[in-house]
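Reviewer 2 asked us to include a model.

Predict the structure of this chain.
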Amino acid sequence: HGCQSIKDGSPLLLRQGKVAEANLHYQEAARLRPENPEYHFNVGLGFINARRLSEAAAQFQEAIRLKPNYGEALLKLGMIQFAQDELSAAKETFTQARSIPEFAAEACYHLGLILYKEGDYEESAKQYEQSVALKPTFAPPFFDLSQYYLNQGRSADAVRILRIGESNFPDNIRILERLARVLATSRDDAVRDGATALTLAERASKLS
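Predicted model (structure tokens):
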């Protein structure tokens, strides 16, 4: 019962802005019930808030050991590994997360970031494309992927991706502005559309 009362009290402390106290509650819960992966995950989040990334990673690893398909923990662990430049470990972690349907889109995106950092731009773009296909309501890939296509001089592909982004995020100023800019400045006559670019720019202006 003590463990349950600790667990129940922690979200209340978080809502009250008492992050450090909530973290202590979660740590005590994990100490009392070390077999519970959720407690280790919450302790890991607390360590992230305290910028203690190595300790956070250890908690996420323990959560994953207890629950191998713990998608949230895999994503958090992979992000820490990526931030610490442990690219090989991060790639392995995100590959594991990609096998879990609910987390595949986010995992593909992060694999794309790793591949880009490694200089494999084409494979990186494939991961971004897969992320968009799996979950078009997940925004980050639209920026990286459209920029890749623009860097390649493939404005038609950039527009294709940005239009998917616009349809899912009609109030996203960055997507609207980028799509407007591409339509206004493309050297491809089949892509350039000044009138639509102006309409998009006006929409973005009203939102800002």
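The chain is about 75% helix and 0% strand. Confidence is low (pLDDT under 50) at residues 1-10, 12-17. We have added this to the supplementary material.
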